[in-house]
């Protein structure tokens, strides 16, 4: 090989080595960059995953108590599980206010007890004895409503005194004609919720002032049963919360009540503690086990959801809303538990 050819071969080989070295450096840089990007992406995903874990809750929330409050709390629970926390199961039952307090005021009892009347002194004493901190959360306003059959065209308006006399044991009223001689001479059949319910207690204690009811008042556990009984009895009359009437207007009609200034129809406009239907208006509640709220994040989260949204759902379930300042007071208390 001539010296010239050897020199040219050397130059070509050297150039190939340089190109290979540059390619190796470039690939190494690309590999390192890709590795760094993967590491950064992994760290970002881990951080995002940690954020999701802290915001998503799991577990159960157990609620029992008032059948009157049930439609409102059931609606809130449904919306909460659908739109807020799919991993939380909110179980809502309706044993009645008093029966619910029995399940609430025990060791490892329910998280909430819905109530259509305030907690009683003996119930609060039991909570104190067991060391259970209880928080009363006022959630809505309800109107005690008297309902009759749609074909009853004579008793659509009555005074409060006439209505109450129908149920009082020491009253002489047994037939419709005892109230008004122009009305049918037919026996009045009376119905209502049984003693498990706060509605019964409100009627007996607040409206009748603890005077005995007639022995033949047909008292039932289920409100749906009362709706069916009245819908089939033209001489029947029953009392229960406004929500069960407004959701069954195809089967029932409400009695307009004269409290002294003319008949008042129960409605979301008249049901208020200072409104036209005030005499038959009552607040309804849910009672929270504060210790459970401190121990179980899902319980506290649900309590906050209820108070932040209760006025939005009150009307559609047959309740009048509570004043916004009362809502905010409860929210501030609950936020203080976080």
UniProtKB/TrEMBL annotation:
Residues 1-20 form the signal peptide. It holds the Pfam family PBP_like_2. CDD domains: PBP2_phosphate_like_2. It is found in: Cell membrane. SUPFAM superfamilies: Periplasmic binding protein-like II. It is a lipid-anchor. Residues 28-55 have a biased composition (Acidic residues). It comes from the Bacteria. Residues 54-307 form the PBP domain. Keywords: Cell membrane, Lipoprotein, Membrane, Palmitate, Phosphate transport, Signal, Transport. Belongs to the PstS family. The complex is composed of two ATP-binding proteins (PstB), two transmembrane proteins (PstC and PstA) and a solute-binding protein (PstS). This is Phosphate-binding protein. It comes from Aliibacillus thermotolerans.
């Amino acid at each position: 090989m001539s010296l010239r050819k050897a020199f040219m071969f050397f130059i070509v080989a050297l150039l190939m080595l340089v190109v290979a070295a540059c390619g190796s450096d470039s690939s190494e840089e690309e590999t390192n960059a890709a590795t760094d990007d993967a590491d950064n992406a992994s760290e970002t995903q881990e951080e995002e995953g940690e954020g999701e874990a802290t915001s998503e809750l799991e577990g159960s929330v157990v609620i029992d108590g008032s059948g009157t409050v049930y439609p409102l709390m059931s609606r809130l629970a449904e919306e909460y599980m659908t739109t807020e926390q799919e991993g939380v199961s909110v179980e809502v039952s309706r044993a009645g206010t008093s029966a619910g307090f029995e399940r609430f005021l025990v060791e490892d009892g329910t998280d909430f007890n819905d109530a259509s009347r305030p907690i009683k002194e003996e119930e609060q004493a039991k909570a104190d004895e067991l060391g259970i901190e209880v928080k009363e959360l006022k959630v809505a306003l309800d109107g005690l409503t008297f309902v009759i059959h749609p074909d009853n065209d004579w008793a659509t308006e009555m005074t409060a005194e006439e209505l109450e006399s129908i149920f009082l044991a020491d009253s002489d009223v047994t037939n419709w004609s005892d109230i008004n001689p122009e009305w049918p001479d037919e026996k009045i059949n009376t119905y209502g919720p049984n003693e498990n319910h706060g509605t019964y207690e409100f009627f007996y204690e607040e409206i009748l002032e603890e005077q005995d009811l007639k022995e033949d008042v047909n008292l039932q556990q289920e409100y749906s049963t009362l709706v069916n009984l009245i819908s089939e009895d033209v001489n029947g009359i029953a009392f229960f919360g406004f929500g069960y009437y407004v959701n069954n207007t195809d089967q029932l009609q409400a009695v307009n009540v004269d409290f002294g200034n003319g008949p008042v129809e129960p409605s979301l406009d008249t049901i208020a503690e200072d409104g036209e239907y005030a005499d038959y208006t009552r607040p309804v509640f849910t009672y929270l086990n504060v210790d459970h709220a401190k121990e179980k994040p899902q319980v506290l989260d649900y309590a906050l959801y209820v108070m932040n949204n209760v006025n939005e759902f009150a009307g559609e379930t047959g309740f009048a809303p509570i004043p916004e300042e009362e809502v905010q007071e409860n929210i501030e208390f609950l936020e203080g538990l976080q």
